[in-house]
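Need the bound structure for FE3-S4 cluster, inputs here:
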Amino acid sequence: ENTPRMPVIWEHYQECTCCSESFIRSDHPIVADIILDRISLDYTLTLMAASGHQAEAAKQETMKKYKGEYILCVEGSIPLGDDGNYCCIAGKTAKESFLEAAEGAKAIIAWGSCASNGCVQAAKPNPTEATPIHKIVKNKPIIRVPGCPPIGEVMAGVIVHVVAFGRLPELDRLGRPKAFYAKRVHDSCYRRPYYDAGLFAETFDDKNAKDGYCLYKLGCKGPMTYNSCGTIKWNNGVSYPIQSGHGCIGCSEANFWDNGPFYER
Ligand code: SF4
Ligand code: SF4
Ligand code: F3S
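Answer from helper R.:
Posting the output first, comments after.
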């Protein structure tokens, strides 16, 4: 009870904010418990009451007072094209803002496929030169949590691990937490027995698709995608894309927008 809460700065660059939307829906742990009891979310333009100069002052104060101690979360990619002018906040480009915040961070979390891989903004022809954060800062530990968006419970689990243990979770060679990204969606898919038996849906609305046949012939990328969708699922464990009748589009893999087509038929 007497331990000070971990200061967190959460930046928003080129993104759609659905990573934040996913995070606030985490059910276990409930995100209110994290924000109110575990961390001190000192700066986040979507969830904080303050805005404008007041918000920027709060960030500056955290960077100064907790230098080397705070966690920096980044949602969104960073545009390097045209001197970075595609994304500016408080008179600074996203790159300037990121470098400033990263300098005093203890560790950095790259939320979602935008910050981890560039995502939709980096899709060809990548007009803004959208760049994932690990290509800009190389001297800090970075946890990559890909997905468009990542599962809320995965995001909550990552941040709680860092706060509770004071260290990074075990990461794979791409910097992803092994606890959530060690297996392919295909490995825990409930349609997998049909795949193994060679039974495939031929169209999205045929009887076989509804009966649980494998969606591989319709373009499912589950065999090439590392994520926890088949086990943790979405919406508090209710379902996930494949259970809802839609093949995996590989949203947690790099360049998934360019690696399509999403649909084979
Ligand atoms: Fe939105 Fe996807 Fe980027 Fe998250 S990773 S901010 S959900 S576009
Ligand atoms: Fe694998 Fe996709 Fe078929 Fe599931 S639906 S078994 S993830 S190919
Ligand atoms: Fe994304 Fe595939 Fe899961 S599209 S949400 S990784 S099932």
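Comments: DSSP finds nine helices and nine strands in the chain. The longest helix spans residues 52-65.
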